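Could someone model guanosine-5'-monophosphate with this protein?
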Amino acid sequence: MTQKKGRLFIISGPSGAGKSTLIKDCLQQLQGFVKSVSYTTRPIRHNEKEGKNYRFVTKAQFKDMIDRNQFLEWASYSGHLYGTSADFVNHKRMQGQNVILEIDVKGAIQVKEKTPDVYMIFITLTCLSEAKQRLMGRGTDDEKQIKKRLAIASEEMGYKKYYDCIIVNNNYNEALLNLKNVLNRHKGR
Ligand code: 5GP
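Reply:
Sure, complex below.
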């Protein structure tokens, strides 16, 4: 029997909505899913690991990858560049793995144009002041960065209409169950 290709999923949403934690728990609890590790020029945070959270590269390295056409998509977010390796995604999908991209709304639109059968999930909160509290509590961004991220967040809310499904993360356990169900229902078979 030939191996079925894995499905591609996008997860986007405002900073502070809890995307990364939800994805981490889904990956631990579901079989057949893998998260794409993006390339970024953003400085590494104290709680991050090279190769696990991101591949941290210089601007010159990132631009070289753009020139070599190595990105499925890339975008600038809050002054830094972020991109998805086309090879990683293709390779994993050919192995039958469902691939999750945790990317911003501009990158998501690029992927949708190239891969129309991508399943797009938007994770949000009912109120962005909750995102502010979470960003402040997380302690990974300074005040200026938090302000920038919240300004981007309200812009990002306007992109909700492009997504197949919206998950509101006001209650973590409910949101996790919801996300697991959506991923299982739409994965490649
Ligand atoms: P953070 O700096 O908080 O890790 O990520 C900032 C934003 O960049 C988030 O919205 C995240 O989803 C997005 N992001 C992370 N990796 C990529 C990527 O490869 N491409 C794009 N377009 N956005 C990304």
